[in-house]
Structures are given as C-alpha cells and as structure tokens.
Q: What sequence folds into this?
C-alpha cells in the first residue's frame, strides 16, 4: 500500500468513525444499557480511534439493538391498540356527528395498516390528536369571545352552552310565575339566542339579583304574616289584661256592697230588738232600706260594667280571630302554591325530580310492605342535542313538552311520570310486571316515533330509548334506578329507539 492509499484509508476510517459517533447519538434513548454502550463506543472512536475496542463494543451493541427492536415492536403494537380503543370510544361519544364519525373511521383504518417504524407511529398519533382536538380545541384554546357555530353547525363552548341552558330553564320557571314581569321577559328573550361570555356573565348577575329579590319578597311575605299574628295576639292580650282589671275592680265593688247590705241588715235587726216606738222603727227601717237599695244598685252597676267589659273582650277576640283565620287561609294557599311550584318542572309542567323522589319512596315502601309489583322506567330522547343544534333551543324545549305530554297520555291511575332532568324522564308503574312493562314501554316508543314533528319546514322524527326494570326483593331504592339507567344505556348502545327491559 503506497502512502497515497494509506492517507485515503485513514481519511475513510475517520469519516466512518465520525458517522458512527453521530449515528450512535441519534439512537440514544432506546434503553439505559444501550445508551451506556453507545457512550463507550463513542469513546473508542473519538480523537484517536481504537478499532479493536470499538469492534468489541459494536458486537455488544448488536445484541442490545436486537432486544430493543423487539421491545419497540411490542410497544408500538400496544400504543396502536390503545389508540384504536380511544378513537372508538370517541366515535361512540359523538355518534351523532357524521363528519367526526367519518374522520374517526379514516384514522382507524390507517391504524390497521402495518406500522413499520416509530415515525409512522408518531404520524398516526398526530392524526388522532388532531381528531380529538377538533372537538376540544374551540372551547379550550379558542379565545374568541363569541360562542360560535363551527362549519359543520356544531356549537362550541359546551360549558357556556350548559350555563345558558340552566339559566334559561330557571328564567322560564319565573316567567310562568310572573308572566307580566318585563325584566323576566327581557331575560327570557336574551337567553333564547347565543350570548358572548361577557353577556352571559352579565345575564347571570341579573338572574341572581332577580332570584335574591324574589326570595326576599317571599321572606317578607312570611315575615308580614308573622307580624300580623303577633300584633293580633298583642291586641287580644291587652284586652284580656284590661278585662281582668275591670273584673277585679267589680269584684271589690261587689264585696263592698255585700258588706254594706249585711251591715244594714244587722243594724235593722238591732233596731227591731231595741226599738219601743213603732214610729221610730218605721223611720229607721226607711233609712236602712234606702241604704240597702243604694248598695244593691251599686252592685248591679258593677255587674253591668263587668258584663260589658267581657262582651267587648269577646267581640274584639272574635274579630281578631276571624282576621287571623283569613290570614292563615291566605298563607296556607300560598304555601300550597309554593309546594306545588317546587315539585313541578316549569317547562313540561310534569312533576320534577323532587316530586319523583318523594313518590318513589312512598311507592317503594308500599310495594315492599304489600309484596306487590312495582316497575320503573327511564326514558331518554335520542340525539336530542342535534335538535337544539339544528333547530334552536326553543325547538328543543317544544320537543321536551310534546314528548313529556305524549308519555303521560299513556299512563293510567296510579302511574307516575316526572322529568328527571335534561331530556330524561322517569316513570313509576305500580302493579306492572316485567312482561306487561315491556309491552307498555314498546307501545309508547312506537307511538312516539310516529309523532309528526316539523321544525323550520322540515319533518323530523323523534325517538327515545327506554330502560325498564321491576322491584326485586333485595333492591335498595338506589339500586332499582341504577339498574334501569344501565338498561337505558344498553338501549342507547344497541342503536337507540329501543326498549331494554330486564
Ligand atoms: N332545549 C333544551 N335543551 C336541553 C334542556 N336540558 C338539556 N338540554 C340539552 O340536551 C342535550 C343532551 O345531549 P346529550 O346528553 O349529548 O344527549 P343526546 O344528544 O340526546 O344523545 P343520546 O342521549 O346519546 O342519544 C344537551 O345539549 C343539553 O344542552 C332543556 O331544558 N331544553
């Protein structure tokens, strides 16, 4: 080998050594052992390369890399499986969103293709992240002040939307109570269209003020009633005290006149015994009789006075009692109105969750005591969110009213329906066994699906899913509802518009 060839070989070796050093840095991070060995290899190849030691190190690294490769493969498969699971769950959560469902299907089919290296895995993860952020980004990251509908007509700002819904329901209940109150009507109008965050906060404040004022008014009403009772009782007490005073004065007067009469009679007796002249006796008798008459007249006057005082006391007590009775009736009516109000859902006019809880406890106790059947069904309107999104909140409200009314029409006698919340209703069906329950619920489901809804000139079919169960011997109140809810979930999962009975 001449010196030219030797120099070329030296240069090639140096280039190769530098390349291996760079490559080894790139592969750092596979495992701690590989990283250590790569460091050793770089030591052998830098400055003055020692190829003998480097070869030994490369042999060791070959084993490490083989192990690392199979571990990377395993890890990649695991990551892909997890990714598929999350995307499927995500797809189920947003099943009503066709565009999102389509995008999920695309990413899922990409995940089923072979993934040859970490870069392909990275790219798959990136696609999934973009898919997930399609839904979450507008709420969290988009700082725009307005709650907007995106290109597919989906509403962003779900939290704000929920707050607006809650406020809207609250204000609707006030509107039913005070239909002519302009502030309530104004708030109702404001809450019917999407609001910016600032406007929503402002509206929140106004609603809170309204609720506080209303509560204080209610408290004032109760306070006024109590004050009236207190004043009336105070008036009665004054009259009783003055009547007692008059009675004790009359009693003293009566005692005095009785003593006067007794003394006159005693004197007369003595006069009769001592007198020896008829004329004198006559004169003295006249004097005594005059005194007795005056004492009797005093006594009569005292009796009259006392009687009048008593009469006036009774009259005044009667007036006060009549007054109090009127007030109490008014108050009782108000209390009854308030109880009915607090047990009624303002939108559908059906009993609300509080009413359901009370009714359930009663039915549950009675069914257990008499060992009789009791069925419970949970009903949830399908894809209700899309009605709100496509036709507006008012259309959603109308749907709830019609569905609630329709379900109620199918009930008889002791059967009970309430709005549980949102688009969910709960029914209690005493004396209904499982076989009858399934048929009854299915009749309701079918007739509901046939109802002709029309929003914005578009015919819409509304369906609901039903979960129904019967009381078991070992049931606790909560377990019965939880079971019906689980069955409803199965009805939803099974494709909706169906009844699942245990
Ligand atoms: N208009 C109106 N909407 C309401 C009311 N209460 C709750 N909602 C809305 O009802 C929607 C319920 O949506 P989801 O829970 O996603 O259910 P869904 O769209 O019916 O879908 P599935 O139940 O899975 O078939 C939410 O958008 C709520 O904002 C209400 O009183 N009026």
A:
């Amino acid at each position: 080998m001449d010196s030219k060839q030797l120099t070329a070989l030296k240069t090639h070796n140096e280039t190769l050594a530098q390349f291996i050093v760079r490559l080894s840095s790139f592969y750092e991070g596979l495992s701690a052992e590989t990283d250590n060995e790569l460091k050793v290899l770089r030591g052998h190849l830098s400055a003055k390369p020692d190829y003998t030691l480097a070869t030994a190190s490369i042999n060791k690294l070959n084993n490490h890399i083989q192990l690392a490769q199979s571990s990377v493969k395993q890890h990649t498969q695991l990551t892909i499986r997890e990714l598929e699971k999350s995307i499927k769950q995500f797809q189920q959560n947003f099943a009503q969103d066709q565009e999102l469902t389509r995008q999920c299907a695309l990413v899922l089919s990409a995940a089923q293709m072979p993934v040859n290296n970490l870069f392909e895995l990275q790219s798959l993860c990136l696609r999934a992240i973009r898919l997930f952020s399609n839904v979450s980004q507008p709420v969290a990251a988009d700082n725009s002040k307005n709650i907007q509908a995106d290109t597919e007509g989906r509403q962003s700002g779900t939290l704000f939307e929920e707050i607006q819904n809650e406020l809207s329901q609250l204000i609707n209940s006030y509107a039913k109570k005070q239909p002519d109150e302009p502030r309530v009507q104004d708030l109702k109008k404001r809450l019917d269209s999407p609001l910016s965050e600032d406007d929503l906060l402002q509206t929140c404040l106004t609603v809170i003020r309204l609720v506080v004022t209303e509560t204080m008014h209610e408290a004032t009403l109760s306070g006024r009633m109590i004050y009236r009772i207190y004043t009336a009782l105070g008036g009665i007490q004054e009259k009783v005290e003055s009547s007692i005073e008059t009675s004790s004065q009359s009693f003293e007067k009566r005692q005095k006149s009785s003593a006067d009469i007794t003394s006159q009679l005693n004197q007369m007796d003595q006069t009769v015994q001592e007198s020896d002249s008829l004329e004198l006796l006559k004169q003295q008798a006249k004097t005594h009789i005059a005194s007795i008459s005056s004492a009797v007249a005093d006594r009569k006057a005292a009796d009259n006075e006392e009687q009048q005082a008593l009469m006036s006391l009774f009259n005044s007590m009667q007036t006060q009692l009549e007054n109090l009775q009127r007030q109490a009736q008014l108050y009782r009516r108000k209390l009854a109105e308030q109880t009915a109000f607090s047990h009624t859902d303002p939108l559908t006019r059906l009993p609300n969750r509080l009413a359901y809880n009370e009714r359930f406890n009663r039915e549950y106790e009675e069914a257990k005591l008499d060992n009789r059947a009791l069925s419970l069904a949970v009903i949830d309107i399908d894809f209700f969110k899309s009605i709100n999104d496509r036709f507006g909140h008012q259309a959603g409200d109308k749907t709830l009213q019609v569905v609630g009314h329709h379900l109620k029409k199918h009930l008889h006698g002791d059967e009970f329906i309430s709005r549980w919340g949102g688009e969910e209703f709960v029914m209690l069906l005493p004396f209904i066994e499982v076989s009858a329950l399934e048929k009854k619920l299915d009749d309701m489901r079918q007739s509901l699906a046939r109802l002709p809804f029309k929003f914005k000139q578009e015919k819409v079919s509304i369906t609901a899913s039903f979960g129904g169960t019967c009381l078991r011997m070992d049931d606790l109140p909560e377990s019965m509802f939880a079971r019906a809810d689980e069955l409803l979930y199965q009805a939803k999962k099974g494709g909706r518009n169906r009844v699942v009975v245990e």
Q: What stands out?
A: The CA atoms of residues 105 and 359 lie 46 Å apart. The chain has four domains: 3-140, 158-228, 246-342, 353-501.
